[in-house]
Specification:
By secondary structure, the chain is an alpha/beta fold. The chain is built from six helices and five strands; from the N terminus they run βαβαβααβαβα. The chain has a five-stranded parallel β-sheet with strand order 2-1-3-4-5, with helices on both faces. The chain is globular. The N and C termini lie close together (11 Å). The relative contact order is 0.19.
């Protein structure tokens, strides 16, 4: 079973994404900020990370950069998808340059979410 890590400070979005992906037979772990992501990645392996851009403590942009710089090469290559409600502030180029594999806009389109997650974990 593929493991998905969701970092999202909105519990509504977190729970919806979790239900959708569990229905598709993904195993979900959810955290509230980038710092928790880094702590978990230190101990566990995941197949993909869904990363909200706007989070307290460590936001998505900082977090993806930290992941790409990890010494563990496999973990540094983890597929990371941005989840963002403020598309205006960042372009697709910004996301790619930061190290994201893809970006999803809020409100989340759940068909697109499933398609992207499946595409990056096959």
């Amino acid at each position: 079973m593929k493991r998905v890590l969701i970092a999202e400070d909105s519990s509504v979005i977190q729970n919806l994404a979790k239900k959708i992906l569990e229905f598709q037979n993904f195993e979900i772990t959810a955290v509230k900020n980038g710092e928790q992501v880094m702590q978990l990645l230190d101990k566990e392996d995941f197949d993909i990370l869904l990363l909200d851009i706007n989070m307290p403590i460590m936001d998505g942009m900082e977090c993806v950069k930290a992941i790409r710089e990890l010494k563990d090469k496999a973990k540094a290559k983890l597929p990371v998808v941005a989840i963002t409600g403020n598309a205006k502030n960042y372009s697709d180029t910004d996301f790619k340059e930061a190290g994201f594999n893809d970006a999803l806009m809020k409100p989340l389109n759940f068909d697109k979410l499933v398609e992207v997650v499946k595409g990056l974990t096959e």
